[in-house]
């Protein structure tokens, strides 16, 4: 069996890094032209209200900007939660006081939900696909996530169940973006796809 180190090095070969960068540039260029819904999407450079961090880099423009003030003085560590697994498969997101992240490598993975105040594990959900470097996106009580074999899934956070799962023509390590009724995500073939969030059907690519 290949080691986790070998797997990590293989997945992040120079070619893959270049493809990921190209997909990121494609998303940045294509989304403003994908329709008026995206051009006006929730003030693209603004962070979600209430301290939420609903998508990779905090907002649809992927700026990483946080509207709240940063730590001052001598900040202390409030809590540390161990996954007791090989590790996170992507950046976490925060919605309504709950942190969502995926853990595990080499096969299936687990979505975890943690109370950010009490550091309590609220629930877990086993996934039948492997996210890798793809941060979830949360919108209207749903969580969306991509996988390295091209899977894209929609998960109902209240019911903790997968509503639909579809598959792209290539794997993805991109983080999805939801605008109105559409999910946008790039893949390893440098293709941008638009997916209907109601039923998971691919509208165009």
Q: What would you say this structure looks like, in words?
A:
- By secondary structure, the chain is an alpha+beta fold.
- Helix content is 14%, strand content 29%.
- It has helices at 4-11, 14-30, 36-39, and strands at 93-95, 98-103, 109-115, 121-127, 137-139, 142-146, 151-156, 161-167, 177-179, 182-186, 192-196, 202-204.
- The strands form 3 sheets. The protein has a 4-stranded antiparallel β-sheet, with no helix packed on it. The chain has a 4-stranded antiparallel β-sheet with strand order 5-6-7-8, with no helix packed on it.
- It is globular.
- The protein starts with a helix and ends with a strand.
Question: Which features would summarize this protein structure in a list?
Answer:
205 residues; alpha+beta; 4-stranded antiparallel β-sheet; 29% strand; globular; disordered N terminus
Morphology: globular
Poorly predicted ranges (pLDDT <50, ≥5 residues)?
Answer: 1-45
Category from helices, strands and their pairing = alpha+beta
Strand order of the largest sheet: 1-2-3-4
Rg value: 17 Å
Main β-sheet: number of strands, strand sense, barrel status? 4 strands, antiparallel
The number of helical segments is 3
Report the end-to-end length measured between terminal Cα atoms. Answer: 36 Å
Mean pLDDT: 79
Q: Which percent range fits the helix content?
A: 10-25%
Order of helices and strands: HHHEEEEEEEEEEEE
Number of strands: 12
């Amino acid at each position: 069996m290949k080691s986790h180190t070998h797997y990590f090095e293989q997945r992040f070969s120079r070619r893959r890094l270049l493809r990921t960068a190209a997909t990121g540039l494609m998303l940045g260029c294509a989304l403003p032209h994908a329709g008026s819904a995206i051009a006006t999407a929730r003030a693209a450079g603004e962070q979600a209200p209430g301290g939420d961090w609903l998508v990779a880099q905090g907002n649809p423009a992927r700026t990483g900007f946080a509207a709240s003030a940063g730590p001052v003085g001598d900040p202390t560590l409030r809590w540390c939660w161990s996954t007791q697994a090989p590790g996170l498969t992507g950046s976490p997101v925060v919605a309504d006081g709950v942190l969502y992240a995926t853990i595990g490598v080499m096969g299936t993975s687990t979505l975890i939900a943690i109370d950010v105040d009490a550091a309590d594990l609220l629930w877990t959900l086993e996934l039948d696909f492997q996210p890798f470097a793809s941060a979830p996106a949360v919108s209207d009580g749903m969580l969306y996530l991509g996988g390295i074999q091209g899977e894209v899934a929609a998960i109902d956070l209240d019911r903790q169940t997968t509503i639909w799962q579809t598959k792209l023509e290539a794997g993805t390590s991109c983080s999805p973006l939801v605008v109105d009724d559409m999910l946008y995500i790039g893949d390893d073939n440098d293709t941008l796809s638009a997916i209907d969030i109601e039923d998971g059907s691919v509208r165009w690519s």
